[in-house]
Amino acid sequence: xxxxxxxxxxxxxxxxxxxxxxxxxxxxxxxxxxxxxxxxxxxxxxxxxxxxxxxxxxxxxxxxxxxxxxxxxxxxxxxxxxxxxxxxxxxxxxxxxxxxxxxxxxxxxxxxxxxxxxxxxxxxxxxxxxxxxxxxxxxxxxxxxxxxxxxxxxxxxxxxxxxxxxxxx
Length: 169
Hints:
The protein is α+β, with helices and mostly antiparallel strands. It has helices spanning 11-18, 117-123, 139-150, 157-164, and strands at residues 23-30, 39-48, 53-57, 74-78, 83-88, 105-108, 113-116, 131-136. The strands form 2 sheets. A 5-stranded antiparallel beta sheet has the order 7-3-2-1-8. Helix 3 packs antiparallel against helix 4.
């Protein structure tokens, strides 16, 4: 069953304490918009938009980097392969409290999507039960992630514009 349907929720609470830009959350399980089987998932808040949606990436431990490309922490942009991702190397701290992903973890540019805050608040109402706030990306790491995706050929233009707001040159 996919509970992804519009409902009301405590939007102010979610925008001010849960869905803060740069926050890494963990949902167990996460219900996909596509209806795919729900499973535990990290969720990186990239931007909170004025129309009450979250622009987010679902980090993955699945490595789809072309085999000829060395994997290193940071942005990988391969225009000739129409490929873009940001890599977090296992056990390298990325959050302000020193937390690190336990495995190499990938953010794929083409998988950035929008999620209505109201829907998320309805599906996942209780912190510590429906989701966990893992922490906040360091400022430098968050800027590098956003720059990677604003310069990517695989990210939708409208998402690039949203991510570029307030980023500077």
